[in-house]
Write a structure and sequence with these properties.
It is a single chain. The chain is 35% helix and 26% strand. With 237 residues, the protein is an alpha/beta fold. The mean pLDDT is 92. Helix 3 packs parallel to helix 6. The chain has ten helices and ten strands. The chain has a six-stranded mixed beta sheet with strand order 6-7-8-3-9-10, with helices on both faces.
Length: 237
């Protein structure tokens, strides 16, 4: 489904990603983990078309989309839940959700998609007329994920969905992400909560300083002491 080959991204003259290659197969849930400043958010924003690649290729469903304008990435079948949620706080929850179904292929299924989002996040049912800015952090993250799902993506990109949330809400959020994947949506998850991300994903990539330094089955990576200590910040015991 998604295939990156030697992807490179620069901020001006400064390189941010160095030859990153990764894949997400149809139906997979894959995570990208690593320390702060490793380049994880740059990577997922490049995949979403928000940062233009300076080299390498980005293919989605066999099509090279490296040169597409960013607004066409959603039409191709991707949707991103950005770090920090980035809701329109002065608009209602319903209005925020409906913005996710802006493209014509999603707009025609808006009612059905909304029902699916509310079934996934029933706490939002009574919040639809409320301003998004009045919601708790956890509820805002539900809206952000729901807005992305309204686009009916084939691949959902998640950038730090647990950021700033209470532990009990994080567990609920990860359960919802697992449910989204179980219903057939492929997921690429960038996450600092390494233990939970590795439990959720089938495969994982470890990043450091803009490079992929390890990859493999998530369960296997978690057993490698040098990976746990050097890149994941976990004790080897």
């Amino acid at each position: 489904m998604l295939k990156l080959t030697d992807l490179q991204v620069r901020y001006g003259a400064a390189p941010a990603l160095w030859g990153v290659s990764l894949q997400v197969q149809t139906g997979e849930l894959v995570c990208v983990v690593g320390p702060n400043g490793a380049g994880k958010s740059t990577l997922i924003n490049a995949i979403a078309g928000l940062h233009k690649a300076s080299g390498g290729t980005l293919k989605f469903n066999g099509q090279d989309i490296s040169a597409l304008p960013s607004h066409q990435f959603c039409q191709a079948g991707m949707a991103i839940v950005p770090e920090g949620r980035r809701l329109f706080t002065g608009m209602t929850v319903l209005e925020n959700l409906e913005l996710g179904s802006f493209i014509p292929s999603a707009r025609m299924h808006r009612k059905q998609s909304l029902e699916q989002v509310l079934a996934l996040f029933p706490a939002l049912v009574k919040k639809l007329p409320n301003l998004a800015g009045s919601l708790s952090g956890g509820q805002q993250q539900m809206v952000a994920i729901g807005r992305a799902l309204m686009a009916r993506p084939k691949l959902l990109l998640l950038d730090e969905p647990s950021l700033g949330l209470a532990p009990v809400i994080v567990l609920e959020m990860f359960k919802a992400i697992q449910g989204i994947n179980a219903q057939g949506t492929s997921v690429l998850l960038v996450e600092q909560n390494v233990a939970l991300a590795m439990q959720l994903a089938s495969r994982a990539y470890v990043m450091e300083e803009g490079r992929i330094v390890a990859e493999g089955q998530a369960s296997e990576l978690m057993t490698r002491p040098e990976i746990k200590k050097a890149y994941l910040g976990l004790d080897s015991d």
